[in-house]
Write a structure and sequence with these properties.
Helix content is 67%, strand content 10%. It contains 5 helices and 3 strands, in the order H-H-H-H-E-E-E-H. A 3-stranded antiparallel beta sheet has the order 1-2-3, with helices on one face.
């Protein structure tokens, strides 16, 4: 099971990297709608990861399930990805005034919960959409990375 979970996590992580880098450089491939399937796919590997961690922990060490297989430097990379994602979210939220790009009556707008924040141009709309993808893909990186390293090292120990 660990090998299958590792390869699923690796595939998701690589796809998330493509989406994330594409969103940073505003590359057309990042506009592919299938990237958003990663939003659901990350749970296919994250839930088994959490269950394995829960089963392996002890009362003395809540993180023993993770630290038993994974060294601190790989955990540090996961924490760095989490911090990077959090900072990116704050920056994107600030840049978009908390709004979401949308199309209303053939016009481009920035809206929040159905309330118009401002009208925007098509190029601004595209830029906001890339920022939105960057936020999602940052989450995907974290949610695929941690199971990926866990199942990789767990399979090596088996």
């Amino acid at each position: 099971m660990s090998r299958v979970a590792f390869f699923l996590s690796l595939s998701g992580f690589l796809a998330a990297i493509v989406a994330h880098v594409g969103s940073i450089f505003e590359i057309e491939i990042a506009k592919c709608e299938w990237f958003y399937a990663l939003h659901g796919a990350m749970f296919l590997v994250y839930f088994p990861f959490v269950i394995c961690l829960k089963e392996a922990r002890t009362k003395e060490n809540r993180f023993e399930g993770l630290t038993k297989y994974v060294s601190g430097k790989y955990i540090a990379v996961g924490i760095a990805l989490l911090i990077y994602n959090f900072l990116g979210f704050i920056i994107d939220f600030y840049k978009s005034d908390g709004g979401t790009p949308d199309i209303w009556d053939s016009g481009f707008v920035l809206q929040s919960h159905g309330e118009l924040l401002k009208n925007i141009t098509k190029s601004e709309y595209e830029s906001y959409k890339f920022n939105q993808l960057r936020g999602f893909s940052g989450l995907w990186l974290v949610f695929f990375y941690m199971p990926m390293i866990y199942f990789y090292f767990r399979a090596k120990h088996s």
